[in-house]
Amino acid sequence: MAESLDRFPAAQVGRQIGAVFRAWGMSEALIGASVEIMVETDLRGIDSHGIAMLPPYAQFRAEGKLNMTPDVRVVLDGPATAVLDGDSGLGHAASLQAVELAIGKARSLGLGAVAVRNSMHFGAAGAYALRIAQAGLVGLATTNASSRSLVPTRARDKLFGTNPLAFAAPAANNRPFVLDMATTTVAVGKVKLAWLNGKPMPSGWVVDENGAAETDGAKAFGQQQRFSERHGLTPLGGLADMASHKGYGLAAMVEILSAILPGASFIGLRGRKANPPMGNDIGHFFLAIDPKAFRTDDGFGTEMDAMIDQLHALPAADPALPVLVPGDPEEAARAERLRLGIPLPAILLEQLRELCRAANAEFVLEA
Amino acid sequence: MAESLDRFPAAQVGRQIGAVFRAWGMSEALIGASVEIMVETDLRGIDSHGIAMLPPYAQFRAEGKLNMTPDVRVVLDGPATAVLDGDSGLGHAASLQAVELAIGKARSLGLGAVAVRNSMHFGAAGAYALRIAQAGLVGLATTNASSRSLVPTRARDKLFGTNPLAFAAPAANNRPFVLDMATTTVAVGKVKLAWLNGKPMPSGWVVDENGAAETDGAKAFGQQQRFSERHGLTPLGGLADMASHKGYGLAAMVEILSAILPGASFIGLRGRKANPPMGNDIGHFFLAIDPKAFRTDDGFGTEMDAMIDQLHALPAADPALPVLVPGDPEEAARAERLRLGIPLPAILLEQLRELCRAANAEFVLEA
Question: How far is A274 from chain B (nearest CA, A)?
Answer without folding.
Answer: 13
